Amino acid sequence: MMAAAKENGVPAMMLDAVAVQPYWEQAKIELMKRDRIMKKLIPQFGDLYLVGHGDPFMTLARSVVCQQVTLKAADTAWQKLLLVCPKCTPTQVLKAGAEQLGGCGLSKRKTDYVLDLADHFKAKRVHANQWAQMDDEAVIADLVQIRGIGRWTAEMFLIFNLLRPNVFPLDDPGLIHGISVNYFSGEPVSRSDAREVSANWEPWRTVATWYLWRSLDPLPVE
Q1: Which of 12-16, 49-53, 65-69, 170-174 has the highest mean pLDDT?
Q2: Cross-strand partners of 7
Q3: How far is CA 145 from the centre of its chain?
């Protein structure tokens, strides 16, 4: 499983999330009715909401660049890549090639991953124009065929690009830590424990997950 840069176990891509999603208010009301922890947690964050990252290719490219490095290193590499590929399109990335991408601070492996991602998009070997109509598991199956993208990255894409309301990223350490802190007084949490807690959240598991991430890192990063 590939991991993205995190701060306190929270995915870096969610730290600046402030926008209203159509289902958010309904989800908040239902979660607070069903779950005593959510009833206490949700009001702490006022009008903060999940915001999407609109361009699928750029979202995925940034996710690959951010894998397994610190937030600072990830941001530095990403800003250098944008100097080389200002629009960050598949065509620009492929034209830049391995040498220029490597000069942005990407490892050979990450360079290969970003080029493979660009090649998949340009050759239409993924169905990006259909993802909005596809169910969650079908999108995940499409994405994980790309080198460097595992299930966790695909689930983050469902949350932050497609804004799917019921994603439960069980492999995310921030989510597990948030459940541990908020529901088990910091005690270790098994996958079974996490699933049991999440049963109350259906069909709004994305929303509950987001509030647990916020409980670990409450201030948005601009």
Answers
A1: 170-174
A2: 10
A3: 18
β-sheet bridge partners, residue 10: 7
- Cα–Cα distance for residue pair 154/142, rounded to 1 Å: 9
Task: Give yes or no for a contact between 126 and 141, defined as CB atoms under 8 angstroms apart.
Answer: no
Q: Confirm if 106 and 114 have CB atoms less than 8 A apart.
A: yes
Tens of pLDDT, residues 6-61 = 555 666 554 444 445 789 999 999 999 999 999 999 999 988 888 777 799 999 99
Sequence-distant (6+) residues with CB within 8 A of 72 are none
Q: Which helix (H) or strand (E) holds 76?
A: helix 71-84
pLDDT tens column, 125-142: 999 999 999 999 999 999
Q: 3 in the Ramachandran plot: left (φ > 0), alpha (ψ -120 to 50) or beta?
A: beta
Residue matched to tokens 């049991």: 196
Query: How far apart are the C-alpha atoms of 211 and 46, rounded to whole Å?
Result: 11
User: Which tokens sit at 46?
Assistant: 């006022």
